[in-house]
Amino acid sequence: MRLLLLLCLALLATCSFSLEQEVEVTPETFIAYKVREVFPSSRRVVITCHSPRAPPPITYSLWGSQGVEVAKKVVKTGDPASFSINITLKSRPELLTYSCRAASLRGEHSASTKLQMYWELWAKPMAQPRANFVLLERGSGPRVEISCQVSSGSPPITYSLVRKDGYVHRQQRPTYGQPANFSFPLTRTSNWLRCQAANDISVQSSPFRLVPPGCEQKRQAWQSPLEGSVFVCYGRTHHW
């Protein structure tokens, strides 16, 4: 009986060891590119695909937009696969998206992240931002809400509220396609502010606006000469 029990324990240990040995990590696949030649409306680009942890031979395939296979190559060593392609400027950015897929003989498959070649190769300068200023009178006191957005420009885009003296009052980097929204309470000092949008190519700004508008900066009878004037605002909401 004892011998049978020992035999069962040995079999369980062997099964457990076998299960642990079979657990493997799925290899990662990386994608990169280099520009070889530049033309007015196209680029000659070399895209490399590499799955360093996958055992060779590895079948690499390059995929374009809408699930179209562009090229395929079998690499029998641990080196990356290189694909030389001519990329033409398209009207829609999503048509210039590429990714790599790798497959080994053991059935391992992995895919890279997507390479957005439109934003990489045809970056756009900033358009002039549109700024919407709103003055709100709340229970806690008057506040200013400012929305800034550009119609075109390559990401990432940084929006800033800038004073005339160059001081950056607020700054945001929202998701591409979304406006930057700033909100802050009024102070006793009025300021000229404008919205500035910047990317890696250019900087554009909206016209300066006086904050707050629709308010008069008056000195009250109860104030001493050393105190700053206060704002007298008319209406609960004011757009300008």
TrEMBL record:
Residues in the signal sequence: 1-18
Ig-like domain residues: 27-116
GO CC term (a single one): extracellular space
Alphabetical UniProt keywords: Glycoprotein, Signal
Top-rank lineage group of the source organism: Eukaryota
InterPro entries assigned: Ig-like_dom (IPR007110), Ig-like_dom_sf (IPR036179), IL-40-like_Ig (IPR040878)
Pfam families in alphabetical order: Ig_C17orf99
Protein name listed in UniProt: Chromosome 9 C17orf99 homolog
Organism name: Canis lupus familiaris (Dog)
